[in-house]
Specification:
The protein is built from 17 helices and 27 strands. It is of the alpha/beta class. Among the domains are: 186 residues, Rossmann fold; 66 residues, Luciferase, domain 3, CATH 2.30.38.10; 100 residues, 2-Layer Sandwich (GMP Synthetase, Chain A, domain 3). The longest helix is centred in the middle third of the chain and has 18 residues. The N and C termini lie far apart (50 Å).
Length: 555
């Protein structure tokens, strides 16, 4: 294996090179320069050191994205401890289980979360620290208490003159050393602790710098919308921009569509990392109503006018994303085909990548100029990808991958590790796909989601859902099997239904029309026998995938 540079070395270099530049900002709140971040990291290092935290100890973080979350995370890795990010939306019992299973010594806790947790259910913790001001919430350690209460004094004793660039010296990490335990979102069941080594953290950041860096400037802005407790948001909305000298703005409040739209315009990000759901909602709410009028459809049919109109639409859409964005990168789920075709038709700069938590997360990517429609990119540097199929270009098979980005395994779970990493080091993703002659990967669905028709045909529910999702008043949907029949569960666009004063009966009639139209578009063996209308949204994972396993037997 090639020599792997130190990730913490990258942190040191970025902090020193960008000392006076803006680093982290809570949107509508306070800003820290890179030098300020270094100072706060050092203060936390003093707390760790005096509190008896050793290299390799686990430190958990549970809270919304914010500056202090980011600082605590960087302080953990640069100290040589292991970070355990926990999604703030997890139920208290899940948080208790993850803290205990990971054997965390400290827990950094976000605003409003402490009231729901039971500290006594996490007996191994030495202290719980409030993320907003690093004050003590609960402690069982006099050493941690003393360090936090006397932090200014301890910092002054260590740096009597001043803290400067020369003092930035971080833990020298080894490639195979454990950096992060990231607990999976549990799309298909119980979550597992993915052990991410430093080599995988460095590799993902290095790939992003290599493929995105040439098109964005250090000192430009980026918006952090995805939860940093998930590897997608952590790697590409935080660690990559921080290591490249980009100024990160955190949407610390619940990122509603209106808040996201406002932040895009004000922050003017140089690149946008998103899940397809965010982009699809913007297109369906803001763009489609304007371009699907009779007048606009007529204009788009005129060859001379067509190009000018599409250029104008693309320009307006770019402006809604802040006007300075090089490209929009989507991942974590499939992009709806109708939206993808529309974005390509107006020459909007977008691309779709592919990854998994177990690869920290990147497996495949291509810049928008080389991106092939319906694909999710080609294997990235230092990663091999194969499709286990007798004919990978035409017959779907499981996608397997190996390389620098692959995890060490699941924490304290060798049995599950052996199930997904074979003797030759190939990680079996559980995703089904094709690969074209140029190496582009086309996802067909999850192997665990695949359904079997009565005549033995493989049915990929994601393909049906993609078509149904483009139909009138469908906001979210999944396809499940009931005996030998396939049924669609739909959560309608309630806002649009209310605007049109539709009754429940009206909704059901519209869905029945959708079902009939859908069945003309798909093979006979996969036809939908019924659509069940739900009155509440589906439960989702951090990357906004529906938790299918909760609904497989709901009919």
């Amino acid at each position: 294996m090639e020599s792997i540079p130190s990730f913490n070395g990258c942190l040191e270099r970025s902090i020193i090179d960008n000392w006076e530049k803006g680093a982290l900002t809570d949107y509508k709140g306070a800003t820290l320069l890179y030098g300020d971040v270094a100072r706060e990291i050092e203060r936390l290092h003093i707390v760790f050191e005096h509190g008896g935290i050793r290299k390799g100890d686990k430190i958990a973080l549970c809270g919304r994205n914010c500056v202090n979350w980011g600082v605590a995370f960087l302080a953990t890795l640069s100290y040589g401890a292991v970070a355990v990010p926990i999604l703030h939306e997890f139920m208290p019992e899940q948080v208790h289980n993850i803290v205990n299973h990971s054997e965390a010594k400290l827990l950094f806790l976000g605003d409003g979360i402490g009231q729901s947790l039971n500290p006594e259910a996490m007996p191994q913790l030495e202290a719980i620290v409030n993320i907003p001001d690093y004050s003590l919430f609960v402690t069982h350690s006099e050493r941690v208490s003393y360090a936090l209460e006397h932090l200014n004094e301890l910092f002054g004793d260590k740096y009597p003159k001043d803290f400067s660039k020369e003092h930035v010296r971080y833990h020298k990490d080894e490639p195979e050393e454990l950096a992060i335990i990231n607990y999976t979102s549990g799309t298909t069941g119980k979550s597992k602790g993915v052990m991410i080594p430093y080599r995988a953290v460095w590799s993902n950041v290095d790939i992003a710098i290599d493929v995105i860096g040439p098109y964005v400037e250090p000192g430009s802005n980026m918006l952090s919308m995805l939860p940093m407790a998930h590897m997608y948001g952590l790697a590409f909305e935080f660690l990559f921009p921080f290591c490249y000298g980009i100024h990160v703005f955190f949407l610390s409040r619940l990122p509603s569509p209106s808040l996201i739209a406002q932040a895009f315009v004000e922050v003017q990000p140089s690149v946008i990392i998103a899940v397809p759901m965010i982009v699809e909602k913007i297109i369906r709410k803001k763009v489609f109503p304007k371009v699907q009028t009779k007048g606009m459809r007529l204009l788009l049919k005129l060859p001379v006018v067509n190009k000018k109109v599409k250029r104008k639409i693309c320009e307006q859409l770019m402006n809604s994303f802040g006007g300075k964005c090089y490209e929009v990168i989507m991942g974590g789920a499939a992009l709806n085909q109708e939206v993808e075709d529309f974005l390509r038709s107006i020459k909007f700069p977008f691309t779709v990548g592919y990854g998994t938590t177990e690869c920290a997360p990147l497996v495949a990517y291509r810049d928008y100029k080389q991106f092939v429609l319906k694909s999710c990119g080609a294997p990235v540097t230092r990663m091999e990808v194969k499709v286990q199929s007798p004919d990978p270009m035409n017959i779907p098979g499981e996608i397997i991958t190996r390389g620098v980005n692959v995890m060490l395994g699941y924490y304290k779970n060798e049995e599950e590790t052996r199930k997904v990493i074979d003797e030759d080091g190939w990680y079996h993703t559980g995703d089904l796909g094709l690969m074209d002659a140029d190496g582009n990967i086309l996802i067909k669905g999850r192997s665990k989601n695949m359904l079997l028709s009565s005549n033995g045909q493989n049915v990929y529910p994601e393909e049906i859902e993609d078509k149904l999702g483009s139909m009138p008043l469908v906001s979210e949907c999944i396809v499940v099997q009931k005996g030998e029949k396939f049924v669609a569960l739909v959560y309608p666009d309630m806002e649009e239904a209310a605007n049109r004063n539709l009754t429940q009966e009206d909704l059901q009639n519209i869905m029945e029309q959708n079902r009939k139209e859908l069945n003309t578009m798909i093979p006979a063996f996969s036809k939908i026998s019924a659509i069940v209308v739900r009155d509440e949204e589906f439960e989702k994972t951090p990357k906004k995938s529906i938790k299918r396993f909760l609904y497989q037997n709901s009919i």
